[in-house]
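User: Please run a holo structure prediction.
Assistant: Happy to. Please share the sequence and the ligand.
User: Here you go; the ligand is iron/sulfur cluster.
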Amino acid sequence: MQALTNRAKAVDRSPMSFTERLYLPAVFKGMFITFTHIFKKRPTINYPEKTRPFSPVFRGLHILNRDAEGRENCTACGLCAVACPAEAITMEAAERLPGEENLYREEKYAAKYEINMLRCIFCGLCEEACPKDAIYLSETFAPSDYQRKQFIYGKKDLLIPHPVNEPDAYQQALGNRAKKSNS
Ligand code: SF4
Ligand code: SF4
């Protein structure tokens, strides 16, 4: 019969020899393999104190972006929701009122913006579809939780901190984006 992989191994069904029945050589062989690993570089790290560097193309948790004055970029056009293959994005648009020019950059904004992180496949198509640089995928991943409803991320979870009122938190949220724009 033709093997599907080259990892197929014929099973040896011959009776065990005296030394094999002692099991001790196999035990020592196993202990020797364990012993050799003492001198090898440890593959584990002390997470979360230490973290591994991410790939430059890593796509993590979404961030809803603001402009330099802290106004929300999103104009609730819905293009990200249309582009999303997982149908993970929902939103409700609202009209900007007089006096709200410092809150929203465009005349229309997302009063409600939600992403279901359990549906999201982190493909980044929402970021590519957005004409307003209003959403991007950061190098943070979604924290674990026990309840499904906790994975529906709303604006309070997604909006980047205010660049004027919380500059440190804003820079931290920018992550690699800040490094790219500074270089
Ligand atoms: S990353 Fe992909 S799956 Fe996730 S919300 Fe954006 S478009 Fe949808
Ligand atoms: S995030 Fe971008 S694409 Fe999505 S609704 Fe807002 S402006 Fe439109």
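Residues 31 and 149 are 47 Å apart (CA to CA).
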